[in-house]
Every structure is written in C-alpha cells, then in structure tokens.
Amino acid sequence: MDELLRDFLVETSEHIEGAENQLVQFERDPSDASLIASIFRLVHTIKGTSSFLGLNRLQDVAHGAETLISELRDGAPPTERTVTLILAAIDRIKKLIEEIEEHGGEPEGDDGDLVAMIAEHAQRGVREPEASASAVTDEPAKLEDEQPDQPAATAAPKEAPENRSEDSAGKASASSNGAAKKTESHHTQETIRVTVDTIERIMQLVSELVLTRNQLLELTRNREEDTVKAPLQRLSTVTSDLQDAVMRARMQPVGRLYSSLPRLIRELSSELGKKIDLVTEGADTELDRQLIDVIRDPMTHLIRNCADHGIERPDERVAVGKPEVGTIRVSASHEAGHITIDIVDDGRGLNLEKIKSKILSSGLATTAELAAMTDQEIYQQIFEPGFSTASNVTNVSGRGVGMDVVKSNIESIGGSVTLSSNPGAGCRFSLRIPLTLAIAPALIVEVGDQRFALPQHAVVEAVGVGGQSPHKIEKLQNSLVLKLRERVIPVVALRSVLALPEDDSDRDNLVVIMRVGQQTIGVIVDDVADVQEIVVKPLSATIAHLSIFTGHTILGDGSVVLIIDPAGVAVALGIEKSAERKSETVRESSANSDSSRYVLFRAGAGAPKVLPLSLVGRIESIEASRIEEANGQFVVQHRGRLMPLVLASPAVDIYSRAVSPALIISIGTRTLGLLVDEIIDIFEGKLDIQMDNPSADIIGTTVVQGQAVELVDMAYHLRSAFPEPDRRAHTRGTRLLMASRDKYATDVLCPTLMAAGFEVNVCGDTSHAKILIQETNLSFDMILVDLEEPALNLREIEEACRSSGYDDVPIIGLDGEVSANMNNFGVRLATRLGKFDRNAILGAVSMMIEANLDEMPMALAS
Amino acid sequence: MQVQEQGSASLDVKNVSRVRMNAQSYFTIFIGAEMFGISVADTQTIFRVQKVTPIPHAPKDIVGLVNIRGKIVTAVSLRRRLRLEDAENFDNPLAIGMEHKGENFALMVDQVGDVLSLDDTMRIPTPPHFDPVRASLMSGLYRVNDFLIPALDVGAVFDFTK
Q1: Which of A71, A300, A504, B23 lies at 20 to 30 Å from A270 by C-alpha?
Q2: Best CA proximity match to A312, nearest among A340, A272, A283
C-alpha cells in the first residue's frame, strides 16, 4: 500500500470517531458553530483526498455527507432526519475505510441507495421544518430498506430534540468541555507517530534491562565495596523510571472508550423512547491499549443495561419527581495500580423482588439459600450465566447473555465488577481494571524439575494435601477430587496434563485451587516456588497451537518458563462445558475463640511469612523513590520523622517496582517499616509454632491453610533497624516459658519479648508446661504464668521445675490487675505483674535476667 | 571459530568476508561426522545453550525454549530433525540463532566449522536414492574439492506442519 494512502487511512479513521461525537453534540447544541465547521473540514478533506486517490465510492459518500453538513453549517436546523443521514454516511465511510485497509482497495458495490436518499433529502430542503411526529423510532439500521419517498413521514419532530437540548444544554456542554479542550490541546501538542511494534521492542529491551539490573543487585548484595553500590543504586532507580516511562508510552486515554458513547446514547434514547443525558469524566485516565479493547464491549453492555433497565420513561420520572431526562455518568479514575470505571445511572435501581423470583425460577439458588443471602449477594447473582430479568426481550438487552459475559471478560484481564443499587435512586457498576496486562503477578509452581507460571488472577489458594494435612485427594469414579471445606473440587495433576514423566519420590503435594470462569478446579503440583511479577510474552507461531499455554516469560534468574492457561487445564479435565455449580454458600467459620489474626505475606523466595496482626500498626505502600539510604540503612520520611525500613528478606527487591508494601510495626516507642514483596492475606487461625528454625530472622515454621509458612522474628529486624548497643545483647539466648492461653499474652506479649531478644515458648495448660519443662532439653531461664488461667496449676509447674533441676528459675505471675500480694498461690513468685502492661513486663524480665547474669539469682525473690 | 556464551555480546556473522560475487556464504556445521552447509544470510548468532525449558506436548524435534539476551527462542535439534539419536553429551550444545518468518529459532548442532563460499557452478543434482526425510530438508547439494556438502533449507527445517 502506498505511503499516501496509508497516511490517509490512519488519519481518517482517527478523526472520524470524533466527527460522530461532534455531530451528536451539535444536534443538542446547534449554537456551537465550531463543531459543525470541524466536521465539514474533515468530510471535505476525505472527499478531496479520495478523489485524488481514485477512491470513487468514498468520494461519492463524502460528497453526499458534505452537502448536508454544509446546509447545517449555513444555519439549517439539525433535524433528526438530517443527523441520522449524516451518521449513516459516516458509518459507510468507516466501513469503506476498513475494507480499503484490509484489501488495499475499495470493495465492489455502490452506494447509490444512500447517496440517493441524501440527495432526495437535500432537495426537499433540509431547512423545511417537517410536520410529522412519528419518527422517534427511526434508526440508521433501517435505512437500507426505506423507500426514498419516505423522508417527509419519518422526519423527526422539531420540538423534541430542541427541548432536550435546552434541558440539558448546561450539563451537556459542561460534560463536553473536557473533550473539547482535549481535542484542542491535541493540535498544539507535538506528537510523533510510533508503531506499536517499536514500543513493544522497547518494552522488551527494558524488561531485559530490569533482569540484568536484578542480577547485578544480587551479585553485589553481599559485598561491602561501596564504589559499586552508589552507581548501581542510580542505575536501579533509572531503570525503574525507564520501565515506568515505557509503560506509560503504551498507555492510552480512556477517552478513546468514551468516543463512541454519545452516539450509543443517542440511539438508545430513540430506540427506547427515553431521554438520557451522558456525562463522562476522567477521559484522560490512562490504560494499557490492549485493555482498552477488552473493556469496550463490557462497558457498552453495562451502559445499554442502565439505559434499558435503569432509566425510567420520561412520564414515570416526572411522576416520581425526578427530572424528565435521566443521566448516565461514566467516570474513570486511577488508584494504586488499578483504574476504576464507574457507570452510574439515576434510574429506578435494581428490583430486588424481581431478581429474587428470577433466581428461584432459573434455579440459581433455593428459597432457603436466598433467605441467607444479603441484598448485595442477591444483586451479584445477575452476573450468573443464564440470568436476565427483562420480561420482554428487547433489541437492547435481555437476551440472557450479557452480564455473565461482562463479568468473565473483565475477570479474564484480572479485573472485577461490583454493583450497588439504591432503590428509586439508581445503580452503580464499578469495573476495577489492572493498569496493564503486560506485567502480571503469577504463581510459579514446580513439577519435577520444571517450573511453570500460573496467572495469579485465577489462583484462589494453595492447599497442602500430603502428610499431616486434613485435606486428602480421593479417587471418585476414576477421577481425582479434593474435599475442601464441604466442597468437592475436581483436581488433576499438572504432571499428567503436561504428560511429564512420573516421579517416584513420595513428596508432599500441593493443590493450587483456581477459578476458571464459573468453575473451581485444583491442580496438583509438587511445590509452589514463588510469586513473581512476570512480563508476559506470546508464544511463537510454531508452538502457538498448544492450548494449555498462554505464553512464556523470563524469570528473575533468566530462565524461561511457560505460562499455563487455566482454561486449558479445565479443558484437559473435561469439565469446561459441564453444568455450572450453584453459587457458593459455604463460608468458613471465622468465629473461632482461641484463634487470632495474622498477616500472611511474601518476602523473597521460599515459604510465605507471617506476623501477628496485633504487631502491625498498619500497612502502607512506600514508593521506591521515597526510600533513602542513611548510615547504611534504608529510611523513609514519615510524618516529619525518619522511619527505618528493613527488608523482610534480603531478597526483597524494592527497586524492581515503583511501590513496595510495608508493614508498619511499633514496638515500645520504636516504629519501623518492614518491606515485603506482597501482602497475600490476613487470616484467622491458631499458629502451632515449631521453634526449631536455625535461621536468624525466622522464629519457626508452621502450617497455615496447608501451606508451610515462616513466623518472622521481629526482634531480628528490630535489631537491624535500631542497632544501638543495649541490653538485648544479654537477652540473646535467654529462654522464657510463657504459660497462658490469653490472646494478648500469646500475640502481643510473646512477640514483644521475642523482639527484645528473648526466646519464648508458649504453653496453654499444665501438662503442656510440664512436658516442655521436663521432657525437652530446652533450658528455661524464667517462667511466666498466667494467674487467671484455670488450666494452669502453679504448684504442679513449680514441682516440675524442681524435679528438673530448675530450682532457681524465677516464676513470674501475670494477672489481669496489678497486685503486690504474692502469697495466695502457695508458690514462691518472683514478682506479680499486670498482664497488660507490656513495658513493665519487658522491663522487669530484662532486669531479672541481667541480675541473673550478674549471678545474683536470689535477689529476685525479695 | 570463536563461539560466544549465551547471554554475551552478539557476534555479527553477516560481516564475514571471503564473499565472492554470485556466490553465497555458508557455515559448515557438523552432526557427528556429517557435514552440512547453512546460509550465513539466515544466521544471526552462534552460541552455547546453557539452559533449555522443555515444552510439554510440543513436537519431539523441538527441544524447548532458550533465553538469548532477553529474547525467548525456540530450540530445534538438527539431530532429531535428521532422525538421529541425541548426542551422548547433551550439555551446553552449540546452537545457531536464526530467524525464520519472524520467529526466532536456535538450531542445535554438534560442531560449527569454517565459512565456505558456494556458487551455482558447484551445485550438483541430488541423487534420487537419498532418504526422502533428509532430502526434504535440503535446498541443494554442492561439491567442494572432495567433499559433498548438502545445504540445509531453513524453511523446511523450521516447518513443523508436515
């Protein structure tokens, strides 16, 4: 295709959408002559260039449109008939442009019908106000079948559009102001045209640069030479900035999605006989260009839905005291890695009763299940397949497909849809969309000696099924299933899906639970290695036919891994088309009396880590650019003070991303930020910690939801954040026994003591305490006993101490209230302290231990 | 010839001299004792493969995926393509980086030899009794002094649809 033609096509298709909008705006506000002038210029250019290039069909259609537009420019009123004809001409131009783009020339055929209709209309006089009022249903789709002698009958009533434009003039112009300004600034801003391929290539190179940078950081992490560190740090920052900038270059304004909406609303209004205003906001919010195309259909569908089901007819609106014209507001905004697109109408809201009866009649839930649902959950049912409340199927919506497709489309790109409704006042759909598809978090799993990536958006959880785990894989009718919290989930071994050789080793397996559309499936893997942000690259043509993979990527260590398509796994399981399950009603019981809450997070490779939530003040996102280095330590300015930052694992790479999550932890008067890779979850449970971990920053390992996790030693991080010499040096290696079931004691006191450098074992009753004292070789330097706990017998504990040679070990009583009375227990207490005064406890314990170290053991008892 | 490690700087083989008029430059490559020619024009780089990621369900001749300087490349074994057994020592095999129809490939071979200049006067017809599988992978047969060198047809080597 020659250069001139290509430029013409690109420019025309870019501007023609704008023309459509401007025309619809002009119809509402004919006083704005600049709008029609710019459309005229565009159509005129199309006509001129196409005649020069010998594109006769295009020339004829453009000529016809130009005739009508010039009438409008000269002051003819924009009747509905005129506007509809011009829009039809624009449609034809678009179609022709598409054809030319595809085949390099105009397709066969002629546009006599349209051109004749336009000529007819022009001749009859665009200026003549027509009398007939039956034309509200007129729509461009019918144009082809119309007889040329009809226009007088189908022409629009003059009053209706004018009334409407008066009503909405303020609002429409207010809402269009942004767009108008935008177009103007486009003319002044200097731009160059870059092909998508070029951007993709730059993106690739940047990814490569990031990997190399990461390798360098890894190499120098344990070296002390400062000569390399400073420039490397700079390189690191620049790389991150570059990555950001390139990402931004791939971005396009959401306004591109808005461009087709005014016309959509115009057509919906006339089709449904409703009066609707469109307000768009946040047109300059930017989004990855790939995503824009994915969102277009779901968004259009939701708007159709609002117009059809939400907005009432004008008479109904007036009857309930609302303005005659309904409003649909589409707004986009940007927040922390996501953009939110809200579609809000001021119509009647969702009809709860109608939805309920529809749920029952379509068998989505039983009456009992329905009764247990909140209104919100009931609303959410409209996204289930096969759900539609429109009792009479209209052209606009109500074909029973749609909302579920909207949901699955949005979920396929890692987004989510929620809705809220206010009866009588309208409803709101919120689309939450990730900023980009190119970089997505993925779960890296191991099978044999190979690794694969599972897209994180599909992953629900990972469940251990070997050894001690209560969850077991069973064989039902030759198929594997996993019973998990009352649900039966079909599972398949990734090994067999991928036809990898069988492995004899009897290792404990993990099942990764994934959601594929409406299905929940489990995939058996050997291990979960990591969660990584991966740069998704499409498969090359030779292997693109392998439907089990969606692409491949390069991990931080330079190795290539294949990305598994969860839908492909579902197909391999043979369940993709099977009947969808009913909505889940089984929920986990959360009210467990002796459990407490923990933060589960990931830092570096290896097992995820946990911290009691009670230690965490809050969770913050810290931008890499805000992190400074002072005194060989990371710090960040926080409320006017410097807050030290420590890495939860040396492998946490804060410079590889713009923002890192940090757990803000306050112990005593000290506050520090613990930088992690990713917060996974906050869960409720009971930790049974095995204190056998030799590594310095981990207290021990435990199992959470079938997964091994490591309990982080805050004391270690506290020491690295506040490296002043103090009594902690003494406390190292000192072991305490905490006998209590109190949540405060186990969750707050123990970590505090641990943070101060003590090693702490916890027991909940006398027998457990005795086992720890008598049958382990742990040597306790002090025992703290909860005096309020009836399951603890002080006397027996003291007996146990004595029989194990711990005569001198001080026993401290902890009580709900402070009292100096130490005689009522029949046991020699070193001291009695208020349970909730952790600083006093810490002080007293430290003092006693120091005294002990100074070999004055008996001084304590007094 | 010098061979670069995977991941290091590129070697621009297109600048190899000794190009005669009306002749094409060919790398000689070896599979065991057999010699083949592969057009320099089709070749981008020669490197040693460090780590291959196997692709489940892929044709057997495709060994897997390889990362060459941030680019993911499909590695194809010439041995398997020729219906030969894998080499005994499969560690860090030599591979030739090539592009075909916009896709990047690494053709794994045993050895790489000199660059030869072959022109049409050296070309002889393929004997009719050649193994059809092998014949389909060749673009021609050339006589150089005492050697007969089959030139590989890159299009056929990387075409897995047959």
Answers
A1: A71
A2: A272
Which CATH architecture group holds A196-253? Orthogonal Bundle (1.10)
pLDDT (tens digit, 9 = 90+) per residue, A361-399?
877 777 877 887 788 778 888 887 767 554 444 444 444
Structural domain for B102, as ranges: 4-13+23-157
Structure confidence at residue A821 (pLDDT): 62
Is residue B162 included in any domain, yes or no?
no
Nearest residue to A214 via CA among A535, A610, A432: A535
**A196-253 and A439-573: same fold?**
no
| H-type alpha helices, A104-225 | 112-125, 151-154, 159-188, 196-220
CATH number given to A439-573: 2.40.50.180
* Residues A169, A27: Cα–Cα separation, whole Å: 11
Contact A205 B74 (CB under 8 A): no
Count of domains for chain B:
1
Give the end-to-end CA distance of chain B in Å, rounded to a whole number. 34
Q: Tell me how far apart the alpha carbons of residues B57 and B11 are, in angstroms, rounded to a whole number.
A: 33
> From the CB of residue A135, how many other CB atoms can be counted at a distance below 10 Å?
22
Check CB contact of A448 with chain B, cutoff 8 Å: no
| B-chain residue closest to A545, CA distance | B58
> Which among B53, B57, B105 is the nearest to A559, CB-wise?
B53
Give the CATH number for residue B31: 2.40.50.180
Measure CB to CB from residue B70 to each of A542, A554, A559 and give the nearest one: A554
Strands (E), A573-677: 596-602, 609-612, 616-623, 628-630, 633-638, 641-647, 659-667, 670-675
Closest chain A residue to the Cα of B103, Cα to Cα:
A540
> How do the domains of chain A map onto residue ranges?
3-188, 196-253, 255-434, 439-573, 725-862
Top CATH class, A725-862: alpha beta
In a domain, B143, yes or no: yes
Domain A3-188 - what CATH class? mainly alpha
3-state secondary structure of A828: coil
Instruction: Indicate yes or no: CB of B70 within 8 angstroms of CB of A546.
Output: no
Q: Is A449 on the interface with B (CB under 8 A)?
A: no
ipTM over 0.95: no
Contacting residues of A for B64, CB less than 8 Å apart: 560
Secondary structure of residue A340 in the 3-state scheme: strand
Q: Does A767 touch chain B (CB under 8 A)?
A: no
CATH superfamily, with its number, for domain A255-434: Histidine kinase-like ATPase, C-terminal domain (3.30.565.10)
